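Q: Hi! First time doing this. I have a protein sequence and I read that you can turn it into a structure. Is that right? Here it is:
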Amino acid sequence: MTDPEKRIRDALADRTETPGAGHDAAVLAAARAYASERRAKPRWYVPVSLAASLALGVLVGRAIDSGGAPGAEPVPLFVPLEATRGATAQSVPVEQADPDSWYRYIQELVVAGERVEAAAHLERFNALHPDYIYQP
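A: Yes, that's right. Below is the predicted 3D structure, encoded as structure tokens:
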């Protein structure tokens, strides 16, 4: 141990005085004052900020997803036709497509990971063919 460390340790070991009752009373009074000050502050801003963020999230979500709003014109959807060798790729509107081939196309979209497009197709499919039963 070095000489400065030894002096500090000796000084702390020889110290016999402890904080008095006045010190304890001052610390207790400061803690009570802080606690009463914390209780006096209004906490209304937390629920208000949560409600405001929720309302903002709902409004932004509706603005982004305005395609499905009531009264909005539906987005035109197409089903690709089976292309043969040498033929150009063709598609047919979903309203004119065969329900079986359209349903298979929706399944292909799901397998390919195109879940947003598949959901749009499936929603329109269910609207146009509510009684359709899949026959594999």
